[in-house]
């Protein structure tokens, strides 16, 4: 992709906005090295002077809204980390979760009618104004009549007009920034900035299709049908489209409304524990988790049940990744740092030329200070800085397959801390992790894996005749090539001849290499 002056100008404008609102110093590590510390001091000189009656959080929130939906998501993430940005800032940024300016009700009605192909009055008994608006979509409360004549409340989610175009525009800026970073700062290449943006782009593509969200709600509903204290809304399958989703209306309190939750008699620390344990069950047990679990997407029903909405961004883990996550957490819970270190090396997350025991020592330096400590005694900013230093010291690259998991773990841990000042991540995680370890790595798990292995062997045995036939075919073709050389059919040979007449000698060589490569691929497919 070539250089685009418009995208570059937009990127510069975003950077200048961040500098003016003090974001670099807001997110700076506690004790930066001399070079970055000097840069931060220079940038601070360009920060906007505080305006009377307008705090930094409100100013930053307004700036992020102006910059676009991708930046709004950054604000939503920061809102979950009051321990990093401060309580006042987090409170203001919390408005980005579902309190953005809505688009008009008339535009929403037209979008619903166009997407579902029927007038609003035919589908709904009533259709109200927007009750929540976020960066991607807004929600309207409506009523539908069932087959039995009863009327039920539903939530109608409608994508913002033009939101995909705005996201694509933001992504162009992110790609340019990532490529510039990789080009001019070689040490950052291990963090794979372009691959990180690729992951973001893929998740955004899915989030723009509400049919995929409906499918995610259905899958998670099946996975969690028997889970204590957690559920997702039911989908109205006859009323979904790419930009419209109709689902069960949830009568509950938003998780960020702490005072309302307390007034309703809910146990806030218990809710915080439920958020963490629910997320771990989904990630470790199911390998399918809600990757946008900020408080604006979580409700608490009168009986204390946690209800998750807005499943546009979902994460998946393979069985090997789930096993790795469970064993890593269990190792930290048991303070077995050498085992945690070996797991990292076995998974290939740490280069093999590094020292296993030295890495275990560095993990101990991270884990020991936070064991048994309450949330109020732990500086998440310092902890994240130490973790980042660790990845640099041991040459660890960003694992794009784990980006959504890592981001969501930071968010849900922040949610837990916001609900419980004495929150202990390890204590809360232990029951879920231990249960999975016992079921999957104990005797029952070994027997199950053995049965899976026997099943695989059985399938292989059934396919042996076909594999033997393919092997014989390949052997005959290789022998034929050895006797007569590599041959192409008449059409292929004729195409190569015409191309040779048109291209230079170097072009002919490239064409022949391509042809031979295609032949090699074809032989592989025989296997």
TrEMBL record:
<keyword id="KW-0067">ATP-binding</keyword>
<dbReference type="InterPro" id="IPR004147">
    <property type="entry name" value="ABC1_dom"/>
</dbReference>
<keyword id="KW-1133">Transmembrane helix</keyword>
<dbReference type="InterPro" id="IPR010232">
    <property type="entry name" value="UbiB"/>
</dbReference>
<keyword id="KW-0997">Cell inner membrane</keyword>
<dbReference type="InterPro" id="IPR050154">
    <property type="entry name" value="UbiB_kinase"/>
</dbReference>
<keyword id="KW-0830">Ubiquinone</keyword>
<comment type="pathway">
    <text>Cofactor biosynthesis; ubiquinone biosynthesis [regulation].</text>
</comment>
<keyword id="KW-0472">Membrane</keyword>
<keyword id="KW-0418">Kinase</keyword>
<keyword id="KW-0812">Transmembrane</keyword>
<feature type="domain" description="ABC1 atypical kinase-like">
    <location>
        <begin position="96"/>
        <end position="343"/>
    </location>
</feature>
<keyword id="KW-0547">Nucleotide-binding</keyword>
<dbReference type="Pfam" id="PF03109">
    <property type="entry name" value="ABC1"/>
</dbReference>
<comment type="similarity">
    <text>Belongs to the protein kinase superfamily. ADCK protein kinase family.</text>
</comment>
<keyword id="KW-0808">Transferase</keyword>
<dbReference type="InterPro" id="IPR045308">
    <property type="entry name" value="UbiB_bact"/>
</dbReference>
<dbReference type="InterPro" id="IPR011009">
    <property type="entry name" value="Kinase-like_dom_sf"/>
</dbReference>
<keyword id="KW-0831">Ubiquinone biosynthesis</keyword>
<protein>
    <submittedName>
        <fullName>Ubiquinone biosynthesis protein</fullName>
    </submittedName>
</protein>
<keyword id="KW-1003">Cell membrane</keyword>
């Amino acid at each position: 992709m070539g250089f685009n002056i418009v995208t570059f100008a937009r990127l510069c404008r975003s950077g200048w906005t961040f500098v003016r609102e003090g974001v670099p110093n807001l997110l700076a590590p506690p004790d930066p090295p001399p070079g970055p510390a000097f840069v931060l001091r220079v940038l601070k000189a360009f920060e906007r002077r505080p305006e009377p009656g307008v705090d930094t959080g409100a100013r930053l929130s307004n700036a992020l809204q102006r910059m676009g939906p991708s930046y709004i998501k950054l604000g939503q993430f920061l809102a979950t980390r009051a321990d990093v940005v401060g309580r006042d800032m987090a409170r203001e940024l919390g408005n980005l979760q579902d309190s953005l300016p809505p688009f008009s009700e008339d535009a929403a009605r037209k979008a619903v009618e166009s997407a579902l192909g029927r007038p609003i009055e035919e589908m709904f008994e009533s259709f109200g104004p927007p009750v929540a608006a976020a960066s991607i979509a807004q929600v309207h409360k409506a009523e539908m009549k069932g087959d039995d004549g009863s009327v039920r409340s539903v939530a109608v989610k409608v994508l913002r007009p033009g939101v995909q175009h705005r996201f694509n525009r933001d992504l162009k800026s992110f790609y340019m920034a990532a490529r510039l970073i990789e080009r001019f700062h070689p040490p950052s290449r291990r963090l794979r900035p372009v691959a990180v943006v690729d992951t973001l782009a893929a998740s955004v593509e899915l989030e723009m299709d509400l049919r995929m969200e409906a499918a995610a709600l259905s899958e998670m509903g099946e996975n969690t049908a028997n889970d204590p204290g957690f559920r997702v809304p039911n989908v109205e399958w006859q009323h979904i489209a790419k930009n419209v989703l109709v689902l069960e209306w949830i009568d509950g309190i938003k998780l960020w409304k702490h005072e309302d939750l307390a007034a309703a008699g809910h146990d806030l620390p218990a809710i915080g524990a439920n958020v963490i344990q629910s997320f771990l069950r989904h990630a470790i047990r199911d390998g399918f988790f809600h990757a946008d679990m900020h408080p604006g997407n979580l409700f608490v029903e009168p009986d204390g049940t946690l209800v998750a909405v807005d499943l546009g961004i979902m994460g998946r883990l393979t069985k090997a990744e789930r096993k790795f996550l469970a064993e890593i957490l269990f190792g930290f819970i048991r303070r077995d740092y050498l085992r945690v270190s070996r797991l990292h090396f076995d998974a290939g997350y740490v280069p093999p030329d590094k020292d296993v025991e030295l890495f275990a020592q560095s993990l101990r330096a991270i884990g020991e200070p936070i064991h048994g400590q309450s949330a109020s005694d732990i500086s998440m900013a310092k902890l994240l800085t130490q973790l980042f230093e660790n990845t640099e010291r041991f040459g660890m690259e960003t694992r794009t397959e784990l980006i959504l998991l890592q981001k969501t773990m930071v968010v849900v841990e922040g949610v837990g801390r916001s609900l419980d000042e004495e929150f202990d991540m390890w204590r809360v995680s232990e029951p879920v992790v231990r249960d999975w370890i016992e079921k999957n790595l104990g005797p029952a798990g070994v027997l199950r894996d053995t049965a899976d292995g026997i099943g695989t062997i059985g399938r292989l045995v059934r396919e042996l005749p076909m594999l033997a036939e393919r092997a014989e075919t390949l052997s005959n073709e290789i022998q034929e090539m050895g006797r007569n050389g590599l041959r192409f059919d008449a059409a292929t040979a004729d195409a190569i001849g015409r191309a040779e007449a048109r291209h230079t000698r170097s072009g002919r060589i490239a064409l022949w290499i391509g042809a031979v490569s295609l032949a090699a691929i074809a032989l592989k497919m025989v296997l």
